[in-house]
Design a protein that fits this description.
The complex is a heterodimer. Chain A is an all-alpha fold. Chain A has two helices and no strands. Helices cover 54% and strands 0% of the residues of chain A. The longest helix of chain A has 24 residues. In chain B, the strands form two sheets. In chain B, strands 1-3-2-6-8-7-12-13-11-9-10 form an eleven-stranded mixed β-sheet. The chains are: A mainly alpha, B alpha/beta. Chains A and B meet through helix 1 and helix 2 of A and helix 5, helix 8, helix 10, helix 11 and helix 12 of B.
Chain lengths: 74, 464
């Protein structure tokens, strides 16, 4: 394992321990691999997104306005 | 007789009930018989409501006899719910040792709505643990088209039950493709509705911003019936939308002449299994021959969305399971424990970055859907893979589906062909917010012109 790889493993081991999650070496290796893959993918995605889009508070698509919300029934 | 009833549609069975040719008890008995025969091989159900279903069927039968009519189009017909939906008085395990003895005292909203519509609870279908991990306790749901292959996850029990005639209607949950992936692998129809369309109250959650509940069946028309009953605002779910609910079964026959369908230039038609590619190209030609116009569209972020989506899902899943992982980590299956624990490792900055990607992606989809009525893609780049591969190192099956969990748009899969090995191929249709009706309309028109949704697996034929 490279120095950087060992550092990332140590960092994740420490974070899981801080949160009280007991993992064995196999768990840790799988988690490190999983997190690294997602971080790489996230970084590539951020590079593909122009600018810094504002993140909305909440996430509900705009419904057609209708307070009565009529229902066709089953 | 059992097989004949088991492969009828909801619409057909309803007509048979209306004409008094069969009773709800006949229908439930037919399914229970097939479950008894095939569930051991398929691992479709975790819990079968044998006596309970028969009791509900007798009640429906008496009510119909007393009033002279059915309460509605779903009255007296059975439904199976994925075992992450709370069901009053019926064990709800999420395929987890953590919940082996859990018997809820209430129904999830979508369960209650289908119950109120008169549907009979047939059983609880198999799922990966908490819809994201291991299948250690109740077996791996297998694909009826080839028992050595995986049914797809996580709503694989609902999908394989429908394909094998062990259910006529089912529900599933979909956080990254968990309705559409098994539906595609098993050759049935599954819809992930618009975010907010169907209440998640009473769904054992995985990810608050990505979870959806939706219908699964063997045709678009049956899914339309189910969604009409399941949908609607629910004060118990703060993310539930206050949107009118149309009768989704109306307008199915309108055809698709003049509709504009977007075909993405990026990601979705790249690197496909050659037989999947051929099936999709043929399906596009079929849609064109039905009068739709195909238009190439740009979805440049499509290939980049799955990793940020994974960050959101696992960070939110960890938030829900933090106490469980701290207090009883060994009760979680290995893969589940590792996946959810990974969510503890992302920073708030990374979560925020993933949310920014979501915003940009959603803007791209909305821009495209401003010009076209729906987007057409393969549901998966390959047909179902082996059970061994699933147990060992499964490929990422959310390749084409997680995108619409990220954006919240409705997306449906419909069978569009078979490989030379006899494995189903699915076509995904994604539409505008709250426009599930157009997806049903396109899928129904396609079904009327093609035989794929009428094929049945040989397993059921041979052993019945």
């Amino acid at each position: 394992m490279t120095r950087g790889g060992q550092d990332r493993t140590d960092e994740i081991r420490a974070e899981l321990a801080r949160r009280g999650i007991a993992v064995d070496d196999d768990d840790l290796a799988a988690i490190v691999q999983n997190v690294a893959a997602h971080r790489d993918g996230l970084e590539r995605a951020r590079e593909a997104v122009p600018g810094d889009p504002a993140v909305p508070h909440g996430f509900v698509p705009p419904a057609p306005a209708d307070d009565a919300a009529p229902h066709a029934g089953g | 007789m059992d097989r004949d009833l088991a492969y009828r549609s909801l619409v057909d069975l309803g007509r048979l009930l209306d004409e008094r040719q069969v009773s709800p008890v006949d229908i439930v008995r037919a399914f229970l018989g097939r479950i008894d025969r095939y569930n051991g091989r398929l691992a479709s159900y975790i819990t079968v409501c044998g006596e309970g279903a028969l009791a509900e069927a007798r009640t429906a039968e008496q009510e119909i006899a007393r009033t002279g009519r059915r309460r509605g189009r779903l009255h007296g017909l059975p439904v199976a719910h994925k075992d992450v939906s709370l069901t009053r008085g019926v064990r709800t395990t999420a395929h987890s040792r953590c919940l082996l003895e859990y018997v809820p005292d209430r129904d999830a909203t979508h369960v209650r709505r289908l119950r109120d519509a008169g549907m009979i609870l047939l059983g609880k279908t198999n799922t990966t643990e908490f819809a994201c991990g291991t299948m250690d306790l109740f077996g791996v749901h297998r694909n009826p088209w080839d028992l050595g292959r995986y049914a797809g996850g996580s709503s694989g029990g609902s999908a394989n039950a429908l394909a094998a005639g062990l259910a006529v209607a089912a529900t599933g949950s979909d956080t990254g493709g968990s309705i559409r992936v098994p539906a595609s692998f098993c050759g049935i129809v599954g819809l992930k509705p618009t975010y907010g369309r169907v209440s998640r109250n009473g769904l054992l959650p995985l990810s608050w911003s990505m979870d959806h509940v939706g219908p699964m069946a063997r045709s678009a028309a049956d899914c339309a019936l189910l969604l009409t009953a399941m949908a609607g605002h629910d004060p118990a779910d703060p993310t539930s939308a206050r949107a009118p609910v149309p009768d989704f079964a109306e307008g199915l026959q309108a055809g698709i002449r003049g509709m504009v369908l977007g075909v993405p230039r990026q990601h979705y038609y790249e690197g496909l299994d050659p037989e999947v590619d051929a099936a999709l190209r043929a399906a596009l030609r079929q849609l064109e021959s039905l009068g739709a116009r195909l238009e190439p569209v740009d979805l440049r972020l499509a290939a980049h969305v799955t990793a940020p989506g994974g960050v959101l899902i696992m960070a939110e899943a960890y938030g829900l399971h933090a106490a469980g992982l701290r207090e009883r980590a060994r009760d979680y299956g290995t893969r589940t424990r590792r996946r959810i624990a990974s969510g503890a490792c992302y920073t708030s900055g990374e979560y925020e970055d993933a949310a920014r990607v979501r915003v940009a992606w959603t803007d791209q989809v909305n821009a495209v859907l401003g010009r076209v009525d729906a987007i057409v893609t393969p549901t998966l780049p390959q047909p179902a893979f082996s059970v061994e591969m699933q147990l060992d190192e499964p490929p990422d099956t959310s390749w084409g589906t997680r995108q619409f969990n990220m954006s919240g748009h409705p997306a449906l899969t419909v069978p569009c062909g078979f490989t030379s090995a006899g494995l189903p191929v699915g076509m995904q249709l994604a539409g505008r917010y709250f426009d599930e009706a157009s997806l049903f309309r396109i899928a129904h028109a396609y079904e009327q012109a093609t035989p794929w949704h009428t094929r049945r697996p040989a397993l059921a034929e041979a052993a019945a």
